[in-house]
């Protein structure tokens, strides 16, 4: 399990677009296509592309399923802990203020978010 730096933003920005970055990796689409797709979803739902409802619907429509985080330690279960518990598979994790991708026990982000506390996640269905 390790942190892998990942930032597909064309300008290498790393603030405000975590949803786009994470979903870009999770759906194997480039940053631009992901951004446009989420804008379209947001427009259709009359909500912002970064709204949990919008990007959650987008993931579900792309073969993901939403799951709760186990409640064994709600304030101390970190992204690193999640990776230890999920060494295989593709996941998009949501914290209270951030979104990132986990693949096969590694977490991909533009910064080391391993100490963040996830509140729910999406798993890619086979």
What does this structure look like?
There is one protein chain. The protein is an alpha+beta fold. The protein has one domain (3-124). It contains 4 helices and 6 strands. It has helices spanning 18-27, 31-45, 52-61, 79-85, and strands at residues 3-5, 64-68, 90-94, 99-103, 106-109, 120-124. The protein has a 6-stranded mixed beta sheet, sandwiched between helices. Helix 1 (18-27) packs across helix 2 and helix 2 crosses helix 3. The longest helix has 15 residues, at 31-45. It starts with a strand and ends with a strand.
Describe this structure in a few short sentences.
The protein is of the alpha+beta class.
Keywords:
126 residues, alpha+beta, 6-stranded mixed β-sheet
List the helices and strands and how they pair.
Blueprint: E1 3-5, H1 18-27, H2 31-45, H3 52-61, E2 64-68, H4 79-85, E3 90-94, E4 99-103, E5 106-109, E6 120-124
Parallel strand pairs: 1-5
Antiparallel strand pairs: 2-6, 3-4, 3-6, 4-5
Helix pairs in contact: 1-2, 2-3
